[in-house]
Specification:
With about 160 residues, the chain is mainly beta. It has one helix spanning about 60-70; strands at about 5-10, 15-20, 25-35, 40, 45, 50-60, 75-90, 95-105, 135. The strands form two sheets. Strands 1-3-6-8-7 form a five-stranded mixed β-barrel. Strands 4-5 form a two-stranded antiparallel sheet. About 15% of the residues are buried.
Length: about 160
């Protein structure tokens, strides 16, 4: 048995880029920043703040939701699968890209809140967060085939 699941809470780095295909399927991508705060060890050593950037990929109806409602600076909770792909750049060097294919998303930025300058510790008040959005099942999605048939397993 194996598990490939990523869970992230972070801030959107730029507005989503959305592409539509001839079949009508949508794919959105955006960077998400997660930050570990700076701290001081008991021996006085200071550990600086560290920010990691994650490439997120949204498909089908989830991509359309992201296009309408997600903006730079918004705080998101996401669940997804980690996937790595490679390509050859213009110089012929092999490059690798690691992406999170999002299955579930919750928008944590309160409605009407300015997304610019929101502190990483701010959390929405009860009842103000956006509802969670999940990726449709394969039978509900368009006829685009997934490259991993194990994704259709019911567990």
């Amino acid at each position: 048995m194996s598990v490939n699941k990523a869970i992230l809470i972070g801030n959107v780095g730029r507005d989503p880029e959305v592409r539509y295909f001839e079949s009508g399927a949508a794919v959105a991508s955006l960077p998400l920043a997660t930050t570990d705060r700076a701290y001081t060890l008991s021996n006085g050593t200071q550990v600086p703040e560290r920010t990691e950037w994650h490439n997120l990929v949204f498909r089908y109806g989830l991509a359309e939701t992201v296009e309408k409602y997600v903006h730079k600076g918004d705080k998101l909770y996401i669940e997804g699968k980690i996937r790595t792909r490679s390509y050859d750049d213009q110089a012929g060097a092999k490059r690798y890209v690691t992406e999170i294919f999002v299955d579930n998303m919750e928008m944590l930025t309160p409605k009407g809140a300015s997304t610019v300058g929101i502190a990483s510790s701010s959390m929405p008040q009860a009842g103000t967060a956006q509802p969670s959005v999940q990726q449709p099942s394969q039978s509900q999605a368009s006829s685009v085939q997934e490259d991993n048939p194990a994704d259709d397993l019911p567990f």
